[in-house]
Amino acid sequence: MSLIEINLPKSISKALNLPVNSPKRQQIKVLKKLLKKAKHTEFGQQYHFDEVLNSRHPGKRFQELVPVHDYNKIYKDWWHKTLEGNTDVCWPGKIKYFALSSGTSEAASKYIPITNDLMKGNRIAMIKQLISLRTYENLPVRSLGKGWLMLGGSTDLQKGPGYYAGDLSGITAKKMPFWFSPFYKPGKKIAKTKDWNIKLDYIVNEAPNWDIGFVVGVPAWIQMCMEMIIERYQLKNIHEIWPNLAFFVHGGVSFEPYKHGFEKLLGKPLIYIETYLASEGFIAYQSRQDAVGMRLVTNEHIFLEFVPFEDKNFDADGNITAKPEALMIHEVEEGKDYALLISTSAGTWRYLIGDTIRFTDKEKHEIVITGRTKHFLSLVGEHLSVDNMNKAIQVVSEDMNISIPEYTVVGEPHGNFFAHHWYVACDDRVNTEELRVAIDNALKEINDDYAVERGSALKDVFLDIMPESTFMEFMKLKGKIGAQHKFPRVLKGKMLADWQQFLTTGKL
């Protein structure tokens, strides 16, 4: 039986048949739904949700009355009460699940509230994405009813005083609907395993017994898993063991730096499906074959705002100002970078998620993720984004026929001026100086500001090549090994200090 032919529960089927409205109307409807549900909470009372609901322009009134929050602010003011077991703080009832999310720049784990309402919205978005596959040309229908290998966090969650905490992928797998269980690999028993190495060994051992149609996860870990399977069974490519593998559902990081090395493991092309599923909610998904961007989820469980990623709204370290300019979905422009604020059905209100996005098609409300608010380099006005870096790595990888599965960049003083220092993972034979020059030249082509500053205050570019295992070992020592964790593309602060100590001593 094909997955998209399953008879869905009536409540979900009804939700999937919502009338098509303009994104603006959809978003106002979502905002009102969220406000009505939360108006009797502590947060709703303090920020006058009733007044917002009675306003002629609820979107603008909401922005006037409710402040912007980053994680530190909303946790300090509100979420710590939820974690302590208080009810009706930012969302009705008691929060029983929290997604642990350390991101890629903070040292301590973040506790992101997860509610049944949020999970329901996430599931509906996932089902809509599956249904959108029907529009694809030459769809490999045979593969739709095959297994889904999902490399996620452990479903054996940490137990706190009245709550459970863990990776969102682990919470999602634990609360998986019954109708999806027959498709799910590696299965509930091994999904409970916390040890990532044991989980990978199990998958490698069981690989010949499974008929996989979909692989789902962060590119680096999926690639590692497939490499282990190919090596164990002395295969030419992964399709020798999984001939029906046709889809790769990925998200969390740009796939561009991984693509060249990833495709070396395949016997035939895959259909790549990008998702934007954060710990805070399912934000967007690729709904059209070969679409450049992902379609924002505008009519379910998330109200979206867009802050122009400009100096007037963010300081030099990427921290948002107290009263930034925030636009609604009908006010944005294509081609500009915005930081994303979200309000969700888990009590997340005007929350800076930390990602920057760009609209590729405003009419279809499709976006690409361009980076992180704190993961950019602009020491002297070069305005180098993660999107720029990813594109440069992709170009150089293809031109030099090498695989660069990981990299990170540091901005550092260089005499009276400045320099960028690249640390690149590459297990192929490559000349360090040629790679340094190639990346530098690619960035000059991609980013005019970078090209100008390379002739001025940005005096040099340094580059070190190291094995991919070096990056993986650092993540392991940081306790960040597994499907949810990504290596930061720009290192600053404590993460940079830890990286430098690791490179010097091999320890943290």
Automatic annotation (TrEMBL):
Residues 388-492 form the GH3 C-terminal domain. It comes from the Bacteria. Residues 297-362 form the GH3 middle domain. One of its GO terms (molecular function) is acid-amino acid ligase activity. This is GH3 auxin-responsive promoter family protein. GO terms for cellular component: cytoplasm. It comes from Lacibacter sediminis.
